[in-house]
Structure formats: structure tokens, C-alpha cells
Amino acid sequence: MSFQAPKGVSEYFPPKSSWFEYVIWKLEEAALAANYRLIELPIFEDTELFSRGVGETTDVVSKEMYTFEDRGGRSISLRPEGTAGVIRSIIEHGLDRGQLPVKVFYKGPFFRAERPQAGRYRQFYQFGIEAVGIDDPLIDAEVISVAHRAFSKMGLKNFTLKISSLGDSDSRKKHRDDLLKFLSNVDLDEETRARVNKNPLRIFDDKRSEVQKKLQGAPLLLDYLSTESRDKFEKVQSALRSIGISFEIDPMMVRGLDYYTGTAFEFVHNQLGAQSTICGGGRYDGLMETLGGQSLSGIGFGLGIDRTLLALEAEGFELVDRQYLDLFVIPIGEIARMKAIELVNEVRMGGFVADISYGERALKGSMKAADKLSAHYVLVLGDDEINSDSGKLKKMSDGSEISITLASLVSEMKRISS
Ligand code: HAM
């Protein structure tokens, strides 16, 4: 019997896993540079956290959650997104009672039972940041700039930033009334109608082209912004301009989660086909209160690592494999094998990457392995070397050799690599 990974999960193994590490490393660098700190959260939470936080009418909650009963009869769900968990943790541990804004980043697997296709998985990886506690357009620009800087620094090119504003509750109420009026004259099936009555904005999520056609001429939220919301949105745009980030305003943008208010944004990549959004985020005014905390606003993004990797690949990006081997020791015979494990341990303690030719491989096969692993130096250990406590470090790039004593191996490695 042979096993396969469950349908629709993404996996990263060498050498491609280096790309995965590289992307996370660039994201972490960008977040740390803006003073965000790591928050590490559980992969499962109470189901209600998501139904309340993300919204019952969203696809994510109504159709895509992996929900199960735990042994204590509680309803648990694998996290479909990160924001609700971050806010839960901030409230639970009182982080919002300290220095504001609370600025955190997170990374890891997320789960949505979607129909798998290129760039859409059931287990996928996100890197996210959240800045919670202060409502300031400069923070909106900062959050956007973290994703922008990370994409740029990792070498990604063909991406576009789209922004919009979902306004405040007044703006949304006026728009909601007009949208409901508009939709009352549109022919919709029963299920869609029921959804629309709960949250008319969700209609823009509907991917069916016949529904999209019926939405032509529908009132757009951006035209309903209150003076205050418009002013904030303009300040976000000015801040983005002043840091040289170009953007397009997309009045049709709908984010798939219910908690958004004010600034909303997406980064899209033009070589990814249908699943082109590589990062999405926005401000959420009411989420913390909905989850039982104070009334504090927050903003953040979730960035799809899998899609970012596909985007890099589509651009023909070449990653120099980060696998790096300073020394490969080839022991010949049992005594040499024991000495090799001792020497390699010392070399690793000295801060170098070292490996051994394991098994009873012939010298020729071991040298081939050293080549494949791109080892910088090779040390062959046989009886002669052990007896004389000496050996030759062979530099693989030009074949030159340096005579050493085995006792001085680490200091020699330090000397030649400095
Ligand atoms: P989201 O737009 O649902 O937002 O997801 C963010 C990103 O995760 C998407 O733009 C996409 O790149 C990636 N993604 C989502 N679903 C999948 C999937 N099935 N397969 C592969 N990639 C996927 C959120 O999750 C919000 N929590 C973001 C946020 C943080 N808003 C404020 N703070």
C-alpha cells in the first residue's frame, strides 16, 4: 500500500523548500524592520471565534472550515485565517493594555476546504501582520509598505497594489440600503437571496458570471464614503505616494471576510491566472469588540506564501540554492568513521556546516556525493591520516590541497574562511 498526501495540500521539500525559507525570511526582515514582533498561535480555535469574528455569511465560515468535535464535546475548527486568533490572544493576554499599537507578525499553515486548483489549496501558508490599537492612516500605509517592501526585496516584479475603502458604519449603512433596493429588482435564486438579505455586500463575492452581469450598475460603496472616511482614505493615499508606492483604486474590491471597515487592499500578480491575489488585508474597527474586547481598531494583511512562490516561478526567478556545505568528511574504515563523527561535531560546534559520507561508500562514490552537495572542502580520512594525526583539506573549486593536523581542523577552517 502506498500513501499520498491528502488532496489539495501544498508541500515543500528540498531543493524547493529553500525558496519557501527565502520568502519567509524576506517577509520577516520587512516586518522586523517596521518593529513588528512574532506571535505564535494555535492552529485550532473554538469554532465560534471564527463564526463571530469572520462572519457566518462568508464562504470561509459557511462552507470552508474544517470543524470537528474534540473529546470534550467542544466545537473546534482549524484556523482558516489569522486575524481572529490574533485579536483573541491580544484580548486574552491583555496586550491591548500596554503600549499601542500592538504590532505582531505570524506565519504558518491555514486551512480552507476549497476546491483545489493551481494556487488554491486546502492547507496553505500565510505570513501576516497586524497593528492593533490606533486608527491612523499612517499605520495603514505602513502595513501596506511592509508587504510591498518584502515583495520588492525578494525580487518579485509584476505585482500591482489595489486599494479601496469600505468606509465607516454610517457610510456602509447608506450604501447597504441602496444596494438592497438595487438588488430587490434583480432576479436571484433563493439561496443567494437569503445570503444577500443577511449581508448584501457578499453578492460581490459571487463568482458566477451570470450573477456578476446582473451587478452592473450596482451602487458602489466608495461613492458613499462619509467626509471622515473619505479624508482618511485620502491620507492613506498621500502617505503611500510619499513612500513611492504606486496603487490603483479598485471600487469593486470585496474582501471575503466580514470584519473589514475603512482601508482595504490587495496585491495581485499578473501571471497567476484566476488565483492572482498574493496578499490581502485591511482595517477592522469592530472586530475586537465583537470578540469581547475593547473598542480598538486594527489593520493587517495575510500574504499567501504558496502564491508568492508561484509568482516568483512564473517570473523565471532563479534562487541560488541556500544549501551550503563547508566540509564533507570521507572516512575509509571503521576507526576513521569514529574519528569522522568526532571531527564533524567539532567543526559544527565551530559554526560550520559539515557532513559525512555515510555507509561503506567507495572513495569515488563519496567524491561524487561531495560534488553533488557542492561541498567547499573535502577531507579524506584513512588509516594514514589517523596514525599521523594529519590530513589534506581539498578545495573542491580548484583541487588545491592544504595540509593540516586533525587537531587544528577547526582553526584551519576558520583561517581559510576568514
Ligand atoms: P484572505 O484574503 O482571506 O485574508 O487571505 C489572504 C491571502 O491568503 C490571499 O490573498 C491568498 O494569497 C492567500 N490564500 C487564501 N486562501 C488561500 C488558499 N485556499 N490557497 C492558497 N492561498 C490562499 C485573510 O486571511 C485575512 N486574515 C488577512 C488580514 C489580516 N486582514 C487583516 N489582517
How would you describe this protein?
With 418 residues, the protein is of the alpha+beta class. It is 38% helix and 22% strand. It contains 15 helices and 16 strands. The strands form three sheets. It has an eight-stranded mixed beta sheet with strand order 1-5-6-11-10-9-7-8, with helices on both faces. Helix 1 (17-33) packs antiparallel against helix 5 (137-154), helix 1 packs across helix 11 and helix 5 runs parallel beside helix 9. The protein binds histidyl-adenosine monophosphate. Histidyl-adenosine monophosphate binds next to strand 6, strand 10, strand 11 and helix 11.
Main attributes?
alpha+beta; 5-stranded mixed β-sheet; 15 helices; elongated; binds histidyl-adenosine monophosphate
Give the topology.
Layout: H1 17-33, E1 37-38, E2 44-46, H2 47-53, H3 59-62, E3 67-69, E4 75-78, H4 83-92, E5 102-111, E6 123-132, H5 137-154, E7 159-165, H6 169-184, H7 190-198, H8 209-214, H9 227-242, E8 248-249, E9 263-269, E10 277-284, H10 287-290, E11 298-304, H11 305-314, E12 325-331, H12 334-349, E13 354-356, H13 363-372, E14 375-381, H14 383-388, E15 390-395, E16 401-405, H15 409-417
Helix pairs in contact: 1-5, 1-11, 5-9
The structure holds histidyl-adenosine monophosphate (HAM).
Histidyl-adenosine monophosphate binds at residues 81-83, 112, 114, 119-121, 124, 126, 128, 130, 256-257, 277-282, 300-302, 304, 306-307.
